[in-house]
Amino acid sequence: MSRGWLQLTGAAAVLAGVIGLLELAQVPVAGQDREALRTTWGDPDLQGIWTTNYDTPLERPARYADREFFTEEERAAIDSERARLLGLYRRRTERGTEQDVGGAYDATIFLTHKHLGPRTSLIIDPPDGQLPALTPAAQQRRDEIDEYNRALLQATEACRQGRPGCPPYGPPSPRREEAPPHYLTVEVNRSYHPEDRSLSERCMGNRLPDFGNITGFFLQIVQSPDTVSIFYDTGQGQGWQRVIPVSDRPHLPSTVRQWRGDSRGRWEGDTLVVDVTNFTPKTDFFGSRENLHLVERWRRIDAETIEYVATMEDPTTWVRPWTVTFELSLQDNRANRIYKEPRCHEGNYGLPALLAGARAEERAFAEGRGPDPATLCVAGPTGACGGFAFGFAESGEEADPLRR
Questions:
Q1: Residue 263 — pLDDT band, cuts 50, 70, 90?
Q2: What DSSP designation does 249 have?
Q3: End-to-end alpha carbon distance in the chain
């Protein structure tokens, strides 16, 4: 027997033993009271694998403006309509078009397959379930990025055809050679370098806070007396490990900025309160960047459920703080739906391939063998270059029944 095989089987045995211990320590029996849901050192036990069972809009749809919850009849009707739409969109647009290629992927990945949740919105404060208004400075930054993106789109064939989301058609803009007005977190219609592409395409789409998404969302929580560790299996293989010190130590100096901020936890009764600051200006959470202040509350409310409440504050971005809540449901540890190996773009080979393709298009145009790259639609507002919204826009039907 080879030495490599012995090492592999030995590692597998150790892993199996660790999983067994975690299952004994983490999985509560239904019907236990809250006192039984504690660690051996006395803290509330949040351990296990958790996920969201439902799809809930972040903001409350206008037709439910004064309602915090759907009726069961409304949920059933909306689920039925979403199922109809999933079938409708499986039709093809004109084969070989940009819209056909973009839509084939998006229809599979980005149309929800989850049942509608009981809440009309994740946002519970403000009471109307809407995101607070942006400050003038934050709105100006958003407008500047949008204006830049539209300038790069204007010469595309999609805009010549008047596709949804396009600016008026015109010649290639000189802004195509300019640097963007702010650090980009979304893609633009250009592929000169990696920073022209979105954070998601660069396999950097994971973020904090994370409210779950339709491409996957599982959390694995493990505790020690001084630490809570959470692995986020989120997005398309963009998982990441978060370590929260349970400590009264101060935050890092303000000169130290991190992609997902600096977390500090404390127990308030049965609730783990996590204060997060020190975000980097290279992220973007609904307009907020380095000044985001996040306060999370994690509370085990029964053997199968954690209540999560998050409050976001940034006076440079929003006119007031806002709060989100949802519930996480315990999963079977033996099924183990956590994948810790990064698998975005199969190691992100897709991004250098995308950039290499852009260089090939430029060479072909310079040699008179292909179209001007400025006329190609590779990224832009939803519907301009394809995607699932395109098919519904063509049919005149709103893709989301909650927005009708």
A1: very high
A2: P
A3: 65
Q: How far apart are CA 364 and CA 129, in angstroms?
A: 51
Q: Helices (DSSP H) in 90-178: which residue ranges?
A: 98-109, 136-153, 157-160
Q: Smallest Cα–Cα separation from 332: which of 120, 51, 87?
A: 51
* Beta bridge mates, 243: 229
Report helix, strand or coil for 351.
helix
What would the pLDDT profile of 291-318 be if each residue is shown by its tens digit? 999 999 999 999 999 999 999 999 999 9
**Alpha carbon separation from 56 to 129, 192, 220 (Å, rounded):** 12, 37, 22
Closest CA to 263 of 330, 302, 210: 210
Q: CB-based contacts of 202: which residues, under 8 Å, 6+ apart?
A: 194, 348, 351
Task: Tokens for 90, please give them.
Answer: 């499986």
Residue 213: pLDDT band with limits 50, 70, 90 = low
Cβ atoms within 10 Å, residue 68: 13
Residue 17 to residues 14, 24, 38, 188, 332, Cα–Cα distance (Å): 5, 11, 22, 48, 17
Cα dihedral 250, 254, 256, 261, rounded to 10, equals: 70
Which pLDDT score, from 0 to 100, does residue 116 have? 92
The gap from C-alpha 88 to its chain's centroid, in whole angstroms, comes to 25
Task: Please write the tens of the pLDDT for every residue from 266-287.
Answer: 999 999 999 999 999 999 999 9
Task: For residue 390, give the amino acid letter.
Answer: F
Residues 56-92: tens digit of each pLDDT: 999 999 999 989 999 999 999 999 988 887 766 555 5
